[in-house]
Design goal:
This protein is α+β, with helices and mostly antiparallel strands. Helix content is 40%, strand content 25%. The longest helix has 17 residues.
Length: 102
Amino acid sequence: MREYSVDYSARVIWDIDRLTRWAAQQHTASFAERYVNDIIDEIKTLSYLADVLPKCKYRLPKVYHPKANTLVVGHRKLTVIFHIDGEYVIVDKILPSCMITY
């Protein structure tokens, strides 16, 4: 099993910021911080899980990268779209899981 460094695209930084603002509006700022930190911790597991995850069967992630794969996080509410590039796992996008349907 290989160990990768996890890197985020600019689009994902914006997604995380948007999630933080949404969670703060729905609950409290401290909840939002915990929620986003938990999601980031789940994304960090890609450093050792990226190779062993099954290939994505959906076409939508391929819009973001031809070799895209997915990881479901946040109690199955969010899907992380990523690809492997050399020694890095590049996180391309975070979407609500309900959007990954085709």
